[in-house]
Amino acid sequence: MKIIRQETIPNNTGRAYVVKKGERIRVSGTTIVDFVAFNHANLRDRFDQDRTKASQDKLFLSKGDFLASKANRPMLRIVEDTYMEGTHDLEKGMCSTSSYQIKAKLGKLDQHQEGPIGEVPDHGCWENLTEALKPWGIAPEDIPNPFNIFMTMEIDGKTGKLAHTAIRPSKPAYVELEAEIDCLIGISACPDTTVGGKPVDIIVYEN
Fold it and tell me: What does the pLDDT look like over 116-137, one tens digit per residue?
């Protein structure tokens, strides 16, 4: 393994990385990680939740599956996944200042929690990714809905209702993805108000 980049992303902050074709990125943690990707050769072509689900006929991704772009191009393939307690999410968007404000106003902040939130975050993953992707000229409105790593959701098969859970890795787990094209990656260590956000470890390397 030849390490190209290695760092810890503090809770409720974001980072961005260029991962070239054939390189791998390992995302390790115990709380939610919001992960987005862009085709480095054409930043308008970016990760798409719907294309990813439709091309593989599944809601939950794991080893062997891939993230697809809006142009239906495979971008990154999952080569390792050690998260055994639950599943990763392709349905929800990302948290933000406005999402917390709206929920607070509607009195819904504790509806998906084990208990009420002690303190409402003043920002979330959307702001983290907006800041991290600025050097590449990515407009905030062009940041796609993410691949929510370690975010286990309950999905009612009859009604389609989504419910948050407190299921997270019981010990540090990781997802490792190999780039099938040159990619710009954005990662946010989510404040994860359900269980409390924690730092996220990142390694970019040549296999």
Answer: 555 677 889 999 999 999 999 9
